[in-house]
Amino acid sequence: MTSPISPQATLSARGLVKRYGRVTAIDGADFDLYPGEVLAVVGDNGAGKSSLIKALSGAVVPDEGEIQVDGEMVHFRTPIDARKYGIETVYQDLAVAPALDIASNMFLGREKRRKDLFGQLFRKLDTTTMRAEAQRVLDELGIQIKSITQPVETLSGGQRQGVAVARAAAFGTKAVIMDEPTAALGVAESAKVLALIERIRDRGLPVVLISHNMPHVFDIADRIHVHRLGKRVAVVSPKTHTMNQVVGLLTGALRLGENGEIEEVEAAVRAGL
Hints:
The chain is an alpha/beta fold. Helices cover 34% and strands 24% of the residues. The protein has a single domain (11-240), classed as Rossmann fold.
């Protein structure tokens, strides 16, 4: 049974379905993201969480279901549509141009033109303004970069992730979605990215974190969305549930009972439930 969408939710979905031939990647999935929170989305490989996130970010058009932003029904056909509603996504490959400098990457596809004759006639870019705004966002988020003019290819993995996240934070007004932001990073750089996510949350911008790293999830998430077999099977709090319980939920060994209690699936089957 599909639950109603909460009017307080920033980004919500109900009954999303996406099929690829005979394969159903999303099977009636629900989703809720609330203001000022970090929502972790966890699930085993093939659970459909990536397809869900692509639907929410406009990269995939669902076959059925509805998506709402601040209670307004929306229809995303492309990621540009999602961006217009203030939803920014940081993909695992970061989608940065290594040869361009930091400011150019942050304004990639959204470049500012000069307001004078050179901008109007010759489409000259306002490099000064873009660099100043890029530096301001980096400073606000505590991202330390030697120079705003250095090419992204000269940065470390953590710094590149920081640039991609800063770009999302600069233009996202409703939500930032991050796909495995620490997957290719070491311990120290992962800690910096997690701290960066916390700073974004502290600015009031909710964050969706897709991650396989359970310690990271329990360190930073306010709520945990457990995805299995193409749908949401539970939403739990790291304050009230253990890591082993979340793993049991995503593997199917455990499930949430009618009153929200954790129960073993085999025991429920034996009891005729």
